[in-house]
Structure to design on (439 residues):
């Protein structure tokens, strides 16, 4: 049997489904082929979204506490209007002069530390990481890559080779070394251990004649199990990769655009300035737009040697969508909302943990939260089965979350940044109900 790498993946035949759902699944499999996965024991079929709500084909409303692409809310009117107006006016690419792409780059770069001076456009996060690796390898002259052991960075040939969360059937590159995620739940000196692991990976690459090029991590270690801290956690690892001539790539596809609350970017929580930053998902609130920001000196040689053109990356419509997203983040005070509602959720999770010992740990920053489910809170034994029951129990109560981590036992909670305290209270009430039914 092929091992299922995706947490919370639908398993055919596990539960009985209605006729319409079964027919859609069969048709999908016939047409899209065998590589796709669906979420939940009973897959969902949505036809409409608005704000924090998704509606299924029968008009039932689901509270979305999971989708971070539509990060400022489903079908945000500002983004919809911007896309509609731009696609009806001009839809060209970066081979022509266009002021809006420059205005956007200026604005986006102003949210980053001053050392980061250029922004390049791609269409997806995978595309951004693929480009970032080419740039890093060109700058450093090395090939070696260090990632966390359940990291996900994307799907291109090069990027899948350092996305271990794709599972044991997808080979890692011979130039790739994995390090354990910085597990603050189980380690007393998580920063020290993480630094030591990255240093050991650097030594091992060198021992095999591979020059280290880069250390890449997602700003909140999302697929590793949501590890937010302590602040400064990755500083030692970044110093180690730089000391050997490599660079640090901050993958902000998950943690960027205000997701972690206090700052626009996840890496800012750790007080480090990356050499390269990749971004995507929430950048266009559903319109495909992604990017790579870099220090000019890191990009210099790459730019001299290779030309870059990405047909859809940074096209006029993408930039219009992305600008509207920045407007909404600023105008609606979404970072502050993420801080406030995130803190409220954490406090409520803690209150539930006092009652339900299956909740072993509560982590995260802003509106990216992880709740670790364990069978024994003293031994901290991961309990994937119970996590799966909670995720599907919530789905049956019309609340959407999912799971992550190597042991598939961490609830991944990542609502749109417009999630209100009232929405959060509703989610907590449903979670309490699901937990009460577990026993
Ligand atoms: N990096 C991270 C941290 C991600 O979570 C993802 C997508 N889940 C990607 C990169 C790849 O992005 P995309 O699916 O847009 O290619």
């Amino acid at each position: 049997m092929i091992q299922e790498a995706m947490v919370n993946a639908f398993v055919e035949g596990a539960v009985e489904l209605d006729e319409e759902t079964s027919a859609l699944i069969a048709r999908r499999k016939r047409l899209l082929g065998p590589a796709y996965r669906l979420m939940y024991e009973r897959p969902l079929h949505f036809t409409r979204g608005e704000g924090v709500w998704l509606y299924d084909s029968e008009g039932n409303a689901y509270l979305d506490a999971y989708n971070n692409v539509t990060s400022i809310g489903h079908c945000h009117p500002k983004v919809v209007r911007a896309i509609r107006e731009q696609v009806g006016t001009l839809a060209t690419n970066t081979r022509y002069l266009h002021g809006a792409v420059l205005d956007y780059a200026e604005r986006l770069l102003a949210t980053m530390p001053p050392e980061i001076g250029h922004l390049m456009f791609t269409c997806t996060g995978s595309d951004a990481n693929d480009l970032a690796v080419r740039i890093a390898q060109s700058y450093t002259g090395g090939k070696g890559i260090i990632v966390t052991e359940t990291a996900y960075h994307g799907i291109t040939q090069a990027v899948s080779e350092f996305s271990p969360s794709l599972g044991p059937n997808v080979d890692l590159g011979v130039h790739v070394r994995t390090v354990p995620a910085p597990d603050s739940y189980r380690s007393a000196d998580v920063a020290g251990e993480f630094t030591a692991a990255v240093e050991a990976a650097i030594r091992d690459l060198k021992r095999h004649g591979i020059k280290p090029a880069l250390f890449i991590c997602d700003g909140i270690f999302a697929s590793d199990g949501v590890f937010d801290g302590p602040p400064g956690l990755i500083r030692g690892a970044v110093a180690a990769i730089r000391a050997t001539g490599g660079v640090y790539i901050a993958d902000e596809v998950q943690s960027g655009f205000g997701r972690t609350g206090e700052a626009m970017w996840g890496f800012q929580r750790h007080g480090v300035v990356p050499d390269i930053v990749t971004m995507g998902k929430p950048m266009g609130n559903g319109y495909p737009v992604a990017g790579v920001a870099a220090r000019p000196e890191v990009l210099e040689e790459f730019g001299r040697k290779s030309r870059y053109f990405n047909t859809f990356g940074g096209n006029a419509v993408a930039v219009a969508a992305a600008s509207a997203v920045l407007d909404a983040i600023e105008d609606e005070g979404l970072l502050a909302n993420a801080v406030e509602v995130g803190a409220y959720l954490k406090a409520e999770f803690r209150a539930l943990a006092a009652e339900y010992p299956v909740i072993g740990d509560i982590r995260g920053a802003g509106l990216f939260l992880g709740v670790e489910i364990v069978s024994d809170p003293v031994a901290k034994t991961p309990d994937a089965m119970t996590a799966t029951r909670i995720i599907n129990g919530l789905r049956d109560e019309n609340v959407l979350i999912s799971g992550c981590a190597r042991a598939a036992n961490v609830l991944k909670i990542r609502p749109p940044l417009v999630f209100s305290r009232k929405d959060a209270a509703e989610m907590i009430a449903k979670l309490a109900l699901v937990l009460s039914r577990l026993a």
Q: What stands out?
A: The radius of gyration is 21 Å.
